[in-house]
Model the fold of this input.
Amino acid sequence: CRCEAMVGRVLRTAAEAWPDAELFLSVEDFGAVAEEPTVARLHAEGRLTPIEAQFHIVDSVVAASRVTGFPLIITTADNVLMTTEVLHRLAGEGAKGEADAIVVMAEKQDILTAHPDGQRRFYEVRDGGYSNCNLFWLGGEKALKATESFREGGQFAKHPRRIVKAFGILNLIRFRLGLTTLDGMFRHISRRFGVRVKPMVVTDGRLAIDVDNERTHRVAEEILARDTAV
Done:
């Protein structure tokens, strides 16, 4: 079989989505990934610019934005099931000008349909369960305020105390008691940070499955093998 590094697959998908766009890679040591085939090719073509990552993910995003400018689509190197279709849709939603920042989300049932072992924790709100897809759109400098919610770490479903630090105790109560919908949750977040943050819900549950451990690595491989066989 053809093995491909995660970062190479993610960059290849982004490059296929926009064949003429410049891509950026925030990484601590570019030399560690420079010889990966897709990384090497895009860098040689002048399409890929490495940016030195900072100690914290929020600081890395801020530092990268100084180089990239806006609007900016952000994802992670483990987001191997990302597709060109979702990238195009996200860019289109951002272009509408209705939000300062957009977070891509998928519904619980769609995720479990994609693979029953794909996710084990969800944000349970009044209108259902959701998981984020590690894919974000930032429209401008103002949107950087929203990234502060990740200062304590983004795994809120695993660590509810982080919701308190990021969003406040009232939002934790609303979240825990199921008093708000997904849209309502994002309205509360928007008010807290003074920016318009909106969710973009997708029906492709695969998009919420990234590679965090051996289980999700196996799940991603199974999904990719299944998709290739179709």
In short: DSSP finds ten helices and seven strands in the chain.
